[in-house]
Amino acid sequence: MNGRRAAQNRRSRKSDDGTLNRRAMLAATAGLTVSSSGCLRQVREIVLPNNVKQLSLSITTLPADADRESVRIARQLEENFKAVGIDVSRDIRSEIDFRRTVLYNHDFDIWIGRHPGGTDPDYLYEALYSRFTDESGWQNPFGFTNQNVDELLEAQRRAEGEERRKAVTEVLEAIASEQPLVPICVPEEHRMVNADRFDGWEDGHLATRHGYLGLDPDVDVESLGVAHTDARPTENLNPIATDYRGRGTITDLLYDSLGTQDGTGAIQPWLARSWEWDGDTADVRLRPDCEFHDGVPVTAEDVAFTYRFLQDVSLGNHEAPSPAPRYRGQIDAVEAVDIRRDDRLEITVDTNQTVGERAFLVPILPAHVWRERTNDVIGPGGPTIAQGTTQAIVADNMPPVGSGPFQFADATEGDRLELERHEMHFTRRTTDELPEPTIDECTFAIHPGSAGAARVVADGSADVTSLPLDTNVLGDIDESGSGQLRESTSWTFYVLGFNARKAPFNNYRFRRLIAQLIDKQWLTDEIFYGHARPVATPVTEEWVPESLEWDDHDPKTPFLGADGDVDVRAARSAFEDAGFRYDDRDRLRVRHEN
Question: From which residue to which does any coiled coil extend (predicted)?
Answer without folding.
Answer: none
